[in-house]
Write a structure and sequence with these properties.
With 138 residues, the protein is mostly helical. The chain is built from five helices and no strands. Helix 1 packs antiparallel against helix 5 and helix 3 crosses helix 5. This is DUF1761 domain-containing protein. Keywords: Membrane, Transmembrane, Transmembrane helix.
């Protein structure tokens, strides 16, 4: 399976990483910025100044997910748009959304279901969009 690393279109991976960053930035920075604070129980606290890790962490983690998806898409022989979309949904729901909920169900997250519902659309959309990019731009 790992012999597919040489077959991956690394420009497609880069494009998918950029798309992931844009989706995440818009989603968390604009669409759900205030509800996100509520989900974390921090709506009454002064806004923390984001550090470098706030931006680089998600980008690096997203790149790892995208490279992993690229390997799996190649190894599984996914070549059509519909299969790319299904793969993105499977990874999005099966790994990303379920792991988000698993992480959120601890005492540090006062509203784990709300937190998961805020994150899930971004993770699903990102997974589908990046899978489409990786599938079509082979």
């Amino acid at each position: 399976m790992f012999n597919v690393l040489t077959e991956i279109n690394w420009l497609a991976v880069l494009a998918a990483v950029v798309a992931s960053g844009v989706i995440g930035g818009v989603w968390f920075g604009v669409v759900v910025a205030k509800p996100y604070l509520v989900a974390l129980g921090r709506q009454n606290e002064p806004a923390a100044k984001p550090g470098a890790l706030t931006y680089t962490g998600p980008m690096v983690a997203g790149a790892v997910i995208i490279v992993t998806s690229a390997v799996l898409l190649r190894a599984l022989g996914v070549e059509t748009l519909s299969d790319g979309i299904l793969f993105g949904l499977l990874v999005g729901v099966g790994y990303l959304v379920s792991m988000t909920f698993t992480i959120a169900i601890n005492p540090n997250f006062p509203r784990p279901v709300f937190y998961t519902l805020l994150n899930a659309p971004s993770f699903l959309l990102t997974s589908v969009v990046t899978s489409i990019i990786l599938t079509l731009w082979r």
